């Protein structure tokens, strides 16, 4: 049993504020950049998949390098605060991606739209560099350094609920905007960018530094590849198998997530989808906030299996039904399973991360959480939607209509996790305990 840790007064506010605002920025990227390029530049499913994949690659490379660098320096605060400031500036730059600025530079509307998609993908990678440096690499390493096993589940429960809270904040905020108008997107990017920048400045006072220098962490280039060494894999089999399970779990999520809002709005014609989703998000956030404590008390298997059951039930309901009440129930189950599963996997990864090497393993974590899911999941979704129905836009171009098959594909991925990988992980954990 770990000794109960007393946390500084500023720890919990810092955790809540930086986790929430970071997730707000990621929600805008992960859920609304897709809507942005779809509505403003009529992007295809393949283009959306390419954007998610490029961002995932950028996030992974950034996290591997910056995580190792922060370990070498032994300070996270500078990277977190400076990264948030630059992250906010890069988000604000998206306000410059407008057809009235692009059309004079290209010979046709179609060429301008294609350039808009390409520029969005490129700027998304730049923004991801700053965001991943601040949040994925250093904020997550700081959270690992600042907690121990006695309260890590509770802290991870708060951290894991923030994506849902962020969705609620973003959905509520976006209700004031007509997303079919360019000026709405300009305002959104300026507002979100400004808030992220201000939080970076606030962090200079709010975040308490947790020194984490260890002699073996001084080797920068060696640390970059530390988590990928065969000898390290052999020393930490539970960590790597957990990350493999985490990757499959997130592949399932990424099969449908890039197309989720488009599915609600375009396929189901739910102009009021925010009013249906908001209560589901709020309830799922409450469940997730307390669910981390179940991990602390009951352990990995007993807390993960209910999460997978809720996720699968949500997929089934969303695949089978399109009415408002059923969509609400399916969305609630799906979100509860998604966020509680994230909390359990997140705590399990932190518990199995070697002490003093949190930064080195953030890149490895992001491979399982972002890179593999971000490349494979949207590609599966795009393949499922390859023959989806289309509709004609006013300018003569066409756009695809997402359908419910994305939830069936996501369910099939979870079946692989439940049938093959989870039993293997439980067996390995039992062998480790018996030894």
Explain how this protein is built.
Strands 1-2 form a two-stranded antiparallel sheet. It is globular. α12 packs parallel to α14. It starts with 10 loop residues before the first helix and ends with a helix. It has helices at about 10-40, 45-75, 75-90, 100, 110-145, 150-175, 180-205, 220-225, 230-235, 235-255, 260-265, 275-300, 300-320, 325-350, 360-385, 405-435; strands spanning about 390, 400. By secondary structure, the protein is an all-alpha fold. It has 16 helices and two strands. A hairpin with a 5-residue loop joins β1 and β2. The model has no long low-confidence stretch (mean pLDDT about 80). It has one domain: Up-down Bundle (Growth Hormone, Chain: A).
Write the layout of secondary structure elements.
Layout: H1 11-41, H2 45-73, H3 77-92, H4 99-102, H5 109-146, H6 152-174, H7 182-206, H8 220-224, H9 230-235, H10 237-256, H11 260-267, H12 273-298, H13 300-320, H14 324-351, H15 358-384, E1 390-392, E2 398-400, H16 405-434
Helix pairs in contact: 1-5, 1-6, 1-7, 2-5, 2-15, 3-5, 3-7, 5-15, 6-12, 6-14, 10-14, 10-15, 10-16, 12-13, 12-14, 13-14, 13-16, 15-16
């Amino acid at each position: 049993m770990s000794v109960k840790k007393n946390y500084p007064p500023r720890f919990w506010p810092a955790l809540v504020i930086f986790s929430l605002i970071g997730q707000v920025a990621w929600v805008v990227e992960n859920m609304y950049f897709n809507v942005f390029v779809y509505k403003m530049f009529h992007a295809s499913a393949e283009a959306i998949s390419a954007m998610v994949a490029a961002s995932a690659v950028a996030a992974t490379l950034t996290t591997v390098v910056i995580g190792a660098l922060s370990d070498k320096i032994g300070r996270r605060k500078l990277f977190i605060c400076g990264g948030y400031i630059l992250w906010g500036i890069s988000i604000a730059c998206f306000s410059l991606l407008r057809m009235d600025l692009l059309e004079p530079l290209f010979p046709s509307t179609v060429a301008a739209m294609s350039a808009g998609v390409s520029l969005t993908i490129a700027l998304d990678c730049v923004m991801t560099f700053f965001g991943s440096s601040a949040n994925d690499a250093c904020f997550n390493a700081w959270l690992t350094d600042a907690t121990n096993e006695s309260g890590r589940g509770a802290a991870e429960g708060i951290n894991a609920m923030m994506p849902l809270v962020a969705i609620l904040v973003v959905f509520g905020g976006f209700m004031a905007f007509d997303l079919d108008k360019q000026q709405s997107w300009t305002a959104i990017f300026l507002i979100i960018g400004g808030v992220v920048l201000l939080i970076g400045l606030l962090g200079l006072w709010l975040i308490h530094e947790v020194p984490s220098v260890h002699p073996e962490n001084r080797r920068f280039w060696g640390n970059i590849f530390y988590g990928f060494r065969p000898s390290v894999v052999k020393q930490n089999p539970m960590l790597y198998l957990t990350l493999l399970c985490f990757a499959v779990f997130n592949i399932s999520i990424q099969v449908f997530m890039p197309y989720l809002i488009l599915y609600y709005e375009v396929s189901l014609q739910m102009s009021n989808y925010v009013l249906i989703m908001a209560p589901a998000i709020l309830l799922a956030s409450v469940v997730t906030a307390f669910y981390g404590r179940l991990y602390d008390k009951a352990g990995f298997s007993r807390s993960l299996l209910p999460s997978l059951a809720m996720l699968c039930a949500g997929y089934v309901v969303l695949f089978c039904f399109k009415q408002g009440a059923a969509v609400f129930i399916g969305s609630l189950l799906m979100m509860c399973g998604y966020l509680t599963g994230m909390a359990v996997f997140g705590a399990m990864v932190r518990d199995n991360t070697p002490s003093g090497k949190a930064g080195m393993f953030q890149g490895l974590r992001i491979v399982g959480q972002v890179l593999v899911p971000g490349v494979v999941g949207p590609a599966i979704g795009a393949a499922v939607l390859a023959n989806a129905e289309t509709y004609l836009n006013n300018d003569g171009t066409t756009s695809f209509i997402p359908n419910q098959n994305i939830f069936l594909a996501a369910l099939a991925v979870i079946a692989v996790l439940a049938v093959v990988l989870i039993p293997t992980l439980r067996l390995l954990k039992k062998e480790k305990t018996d030894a």
